[in-house]
């Protein structure tokens, strides 16, 4: 039998279609009636915002390639045009399901629980009076009616703008006219109506577009309003920067972020009742194809509905949980004393972000701390991390922050933080030209007697207290001398001129990570070929890199058992005879976003376990600065392996990837107990907290 060609396109799934399958799994959580109602609404909002980003970046990129005449095939064998067609075909049924569950299921059920979205026509006179007053005071001064005729070209509408197309009639001249009114994003979309009486516990809202529609005649005095139609525009939001030629990278990125609002149109969403001639008018004006137009039979921009999930309806949400400090913190406040005693594993969201923040804040005020260095990728709004670094600088520490300005859709935030840190006296650097700095690293240099000791925090997730409550991520606190020396040299690599190509313990992209990963997989293959046990367990967000996939195929051919927990995109085809028979792939989509990366290699009994910031994608291994680090403390290793074991045994939120590319929910065997990995980890966290007296 001929040896299979591991480059055969049939052995790979398409990246774009695999991402759509991930978003379908998000949609399944919205469809799942076991989830609380507001959580289902949240999944619908996440599906919508996920899709917006996909359209702005990936779909737009495919359209650019087609327009440029690129016919090169991806490693799964499709040209850009074929991918674009396949994506369009896959999108429409997903969008139809999304709209159906919102319109027929979630919104009616929420109405039964007192959350109502009303049209202006349904309002009582007192409510109508309040709405009219709101329009006059708040909306009318902000709105701009934009005529469309020979003297007024179609307005340049920004990315993700929501507008009304207004059909007018001039009774004096007997002429039809057209105008556009953009719904202002600077004002709330949901206008809450007052309680009907003292005992009213309902939440009644009117959407801002409904208010504008009801009063739109005020914008066109002397004209009759014949009809209004909602539409929403999505533009290409990706950009490339010639970093080598940029004198001021911060200013260049700031300029590009502003331009992002005005990229080429790539998608048009229109209300289902819009007549065909108006749909054609918008489509041709915006230079879109019919495949780029989506008719929507209810609300546009469901991402905005995330706001409603924060309403005071606790019975419609997941039960609350309290994040805790790691058990090593029990009754102790000196983080450095704790870490000197043993390495500490932090597992968000089950552990509080305070476990990280306490370390930074203690370092900021500790007179023995000499220097703090930290990478910042996505830190969120009103960041306590940034405040602590600024305070440390004010206290005379030597503080260095590597702020990644190119973190997509966080560029503006990061520009603000970079400037604030610079004003506080922090050394702010932006990393390498052509590379994103994606590693999550904190280094604290402290004088202890006659010695200098390095403390490190290395993680899989961002220094962001907001996402730490909804993303699962690992982090390690350590003062291991070799690891500390590696992190110190990593920062020198990031901030200075360095051609370093080796580290003691870290695997660093783009220098060593790909080679170290390949070697680890090949060692498992060698153990299996020699008659031993080969075993790989890997957890990540995405698996795309074809060289890594081929290495896994070769390992599987040798008999290595590979269990892969891949939350999002997976281009590897498992279960193919003679190629990937021993590879299993599962995805977990649940209450928390699975974001941690962990890599286990049996290594002939000398087990190796690593955590890190990198997925197995070309961009992570080649075009980003990433750090993968070893877990060597037996107690920490045991905790990580427990998490991986739970993920592999999850039979509630796990889906298993089939050889044909479909995902099937993991099935419980006869007599097998229900096991939701995230629920079980919450239970374990609560039990450990009880041992700590509730801390």
UniProtKB/TrEMBL annotation:
Chain ranges of the Polyphosphate kinase N-terminal domain: 12-117
Highest taxon of the lineage: Bacteria
Location of the Polyphosphate kinase middle domain: 127-308
Catalytic residues (positions): 438 (phosphohistidine intermediate)
Residue ranges constituting the Polyphosphate kinase C-terminal domain according to the UniProt record: 334-499, 506-678
Catalytic activity: [phosphate](n) + ATP = [phosphate](n+1) + ADP
Family: Belongs to the polyphosphate kinase 1 (PPK1) family.
NCBIfam families, sorted: poly_P_kin, PRK05443.1-1, PRK05443.1-2, PRK05443.2-2
Function: Catalyzes the reversible transfer of the terminal phosphate of ATP to form a long-chain polyphosphate (polyP).
Protein name: Polyphosphate kinase
Gene it is expressed from: ppk
